[in-house]
Amino acid sequence: MKTLEQIQEFYESELKQSLAAMEQDRQKMISKAMAFVGIFGVVGLVGGLLITQMGAHNGVLLLIVLGICVAIGVGAFSAANKNYKSGYKSQIIHKLITFAQPGLEYWPEGGISKEIFTGSKLFTHSIDRYHCEDLVRGKVDKTEILFSEIHAEYKTTSGTGKNRRTEWHTIFKGLFVVADFNKHFRGRTVVLPDTAQKAFGLFGQTLQSWNPSRDELIRLEDVEFEKEFVVYGTDQVESRYILSPALMERILEFRRRLRDGLYLSFVGSKVYVAIPLDTNLFEPKTFSSAAGFESIKEYYDQLRFGLAIVDELNLNTRIWTKE
Amino acid sequence: MPVLFGLVILGLIVLVPVLMYNSLVGKRNQVANIFGTMDAMLKKRWDLVPNLVETVKGYAQHEKSLFETVTAARSRAMGGQMSDDEMVQYDNAVSKLVGVMRATVENYPQVKAGENFLHLQRTLNELEEQISAARRAFNAAVTDYNNSVDMFPTNIIASMFGFQRKGLLEFEAQARQNPSVGF
Lengths: 323, 183
Prior knowledge:
The structure holds 2 protein chains of 2 kinds.
Chain A: H1 4-53, H2 56-100, E1 104-107, H3 114-119, E2 129-140, E3 143-158, E4 165-180, E5 188-193, H4 196-200, H5 202-209, E6 216-218, H6 223-228, E7 229-233, H7 236-242, H8 245-256, E8 263-267, E9 270-276, H9 293-312
Antiparallel strand pairs in A: 1-2, 2-3, 3-4, 4-9, 5-7, 5-8, 6-7, 8-9
Chain B: H1 2-47, H2 49-56, H3 64-78, H4 84-107, H5 109-113, H6 115-150, H7 154-160, H8 173-177
């Protein structure tokens, strides 16, 4: 991984010019939008006055015409904005990522598929709406890794007829990482934030062992780890083979640096990590400049965060039979 | 109505001890099951003994008697003629052999760089990690079982049917001193 100094040099020599051109386009887009809003403010005001003078029939007609113009304006703006963002991502972010960590590729429109997400067994709720973007994929030293943003939701409907209401609930929103684990294993081990034990103590642990949607409860000897997480697995010995005392320590350390929890699972010789996040990754802002080095640094930090799992879990240590 | 109530109470009086008994049996079986896994892994490590001896014997002549003891013990262990105590002793000897190997390769870089050694090293690391996992799983299962044997109300059923507490695995002082590979 390149250092921040190297990124700064790269910014000066490779990115700055393209960023300046993009910044001009962005400013043009914003001033067009402002002009549009200004003109329609005036037209709307005049139109409003006219409507009060007109008959009802002509008034409605004028409203429809105004409405169509506003819709066209909003449509044109969002198309231009989309264009700006996708240009930024495919040129700037792509260059930044492939330079910062050679061996990686970036697809702004790509993402981790729903099948992989559900295959991780981290979230058992059925999904009604699934969105993913910003896929980064490649190899960091010996470890294959991919990550993307994911937003998975389910819906509930209540009421009937006219009162029928649909509500969307988030199952998971944030960063989802899949990496090759450094040990061979056959079964499945899932590590989830512990809510029951925190709330109900020992009784909570009994409740956890009755969870029908999960495998066997694995009680680990690390007290701190047990307080923070609950572990389910298909094989008592294998889960402990994966979660060695050293790895438990590392996971706890990593958890302490995150705000909203950490979900991990080990399935098919891979580790799946879900980190809830509110931030939209690699996303340039529309109404403020993304041409300065601060923005580049922010994306670089986000990339490091996505790849952090390799170091946090020591995945490049290949001293077991898996190479 | 009172009859129905009486029947429910009677049902519970029968059902609850049956459930407690079954949970005790389940936990005891879990201990035996994990013990079996651990045993299998220890034997896998013993399979590496000829390789281990082969790797270091040219470089550590002063440990000749250790090699002989271990090699002789291995053939007895493979023949299934060992008592539990002897098996523990043998396993400790194997641990010592692993220690000797690690110390030897530090002094002989040409051994360390060899393809065979690297493979052996990986296999050993893997097995030791698995054995340690099996030991931890065994102790967790024993603790769970012992809790049921000691705690009210399952202790009543346990004492009625002769469920005995089981001992946890303790590591030999020598094994504790063994340089851990450090992961």
